[in-house]
What does this fold into?
Amino acid sequence: MSIFIAKVKDNSGKIFKEKIEAASAEQARLVLKNRYVAVGKVSKSSFEIDLTQLQLMLAKVTVKDKAIFSRQFSVMVNAGVAIVRALGILSDQAPNPKLKKALLAISAEVQQGISLSDSMIKHPECFNNLYVAMVEAGETGGVLDEVLMRLSKLLEDMAKLQNQIKSAMAYPVTVGIFAVIAFLGMTIFLIPVFGGIFEQLGAELPLLTRTMLTISGILRSWKVIIPIAAFVGISFLLRTYYKTPAGRLQIDAFLLKAPLFGDLNEKIAVARFCRIFGTLTRSGVPVLQCFDIVCDTIGNQVLVNAVMAAKNDIQQGGMISLAIQKEKVFPPLAIQMISIGEETGELDGMMEKVADFYEDEVEQAVKALTSMIEPIMMVGIALMVGTILLSMYLPMFSIFDQLG
It folds into this structure.
């Protein structure tokens, strides 16, 4: 993408220079023609700010960005605004540079006759398979505005779920960071001072004090590299192992069974599956294609394997609820509600009700987990500080005994 400059004239007859980012001068002219009455010569800018390119590389299109775009796009399409013009307007006001770049490219391709979904699929960093499939279904059925509104609702629900988890974990993480800083500060700077005093007085040091002085010595020497290197190495090995099929399956299975967090992870995955599946089927996406899309977004390999096995059963004429029940991964309540949805012909609606239920369960579980973690962390910090202080005061007692 490069920056181009052109003289343009707006509806009021005012002539001025407009700067635009595009892949080529032709693409820049196409986009400008859609916005202004007349477009003069388009030339490449001789001065391009590197900072813009850096921002583009570092930018990430969030769920919230896509939700806002989808809602605004839906409103404009419903109001009768042409898709190309709507994309041009939204690209102008897009705060995210990566999304802005994608919308400019999509607008130019749509203007050339390419379908919206075919254009979006070329930008997976902004629009994943779920988004593209729903847009394609909306284009095919002539209900693009309705599908976009459903997309915005789906993305807003996903963003809400993410924010609940992040906000709940913000306090424990912050306290944990300050606890580590306090431990390092006291161990590196405070303990050596007391250690020097005890050495001058010739005091006999108890085991706890000797242990803390040893830890302090390690943290202040090159030996501190050893635990850091071990931590980095183990993290790298785990990430590498997680990228293998067997490793991903094993670690994801552990996450579903882990103490405290296992039940929460299961509820999050089930809520995501039902929310996405229900939205896709209501938007007109074929059921088998829904399974493929859900597998890309569900986030846990154990559940992915269960969903793919269920898809194979459904291809042979089975029911979704029975196929999922066979894998013994989904909670019984979710299976029963999905079964009722199939029997009544309201599968999409029932899926969304299941998603609502489990999202509420996630919210309650997160609150309960947070209320449980907070006192544990407080006790842990108190024990840490108490241990350090005790290790410093114990030698003083022996010194006072000797003086007495």
